[in-house]
Fold this protein.
Amino acid sequence: MAFIPGVVLYALAAARYFSFYRRRPARMLLGVITAFALLAEAMIAIAVARNWQATWWEWHLLMLVAFGFVAYSARKEWREERFSDLYLEGTTRAVKDVSVLFADLQGFTAFSERAKPGEVTMMLNEYFKKTVPLVVREHDGEIDKLIGDAIMVSFNKRGDQPDHVLKAVRAGLAIQRVTEKVARSHPEWPRFRVGINSGKATVAVVGAEGKREYTVVGDTVNLASRLEGQAKAGQVVIGAETYRALPEGTKVESLGGVQVKGKEAPVEAYVVVELPPYVSERDERLQRENPEGES
């Protein structure tokens, strides 16, 4: 009777996914439901069948069919976010506090007109080779899109980065530092300009068959893109919400109220000059526990 708990758990999993399927029918969900049902049947077969050799083959055959059906369902879905039908509703659509970074190359169109196609490709690959791993690995950003010469990066999309504002600004400054080094060997190459904005945004699966992605949308995202257009090559421009969330000691230059497309009233914008020295969470905790620096 030891097989009963396993069968019950498989049945509960199938029932739970069936409730998802009733709310949003999808091939992937149907595949997972079928897989759990087949696994439950395989467990029953191996527990009660008299011929163990036949049962052994049936067990593996049913498992193969179960996982094969899930693989087939995934293959039939579009390439991006093909498992999104399995996401909880709070994942497929939620409002969260995020920071969004846009970066593109100022003067890219003019450079592309006078340069050979191979040189343009080499330039983009060289810049992306330096910036993308830097943003993802060292600053925990998530690359939402690479659009030609532009990069869109989101922070706290999954709600697990309380310091997302600082991470985003540090990432923006790091992009400028690393690309400045690259540009020293290629002074004719255009330079990045960066815009960052923070605030509420909808995090959702967006798109339709053929192209679907998990991304952030809303006014916060749009303004980040507009602020990037206000930056000069080598600059990081941030919005008011981002500036207010940065630590004391941050140095900025105010651009005053700038007029951006889609906004009736001017918006506050700042060029980031310098962030205070990095303080780890451990150092912050020790400082709170021992403010006088006693040993």
User: Anything to note?
Assistant: The chain has two domains: 4-76, 89-286. The CA atoms of residues 14 and 33 lie 5 Å apart. Residues 280-287 have pLDDT under 50 and may be disordered.
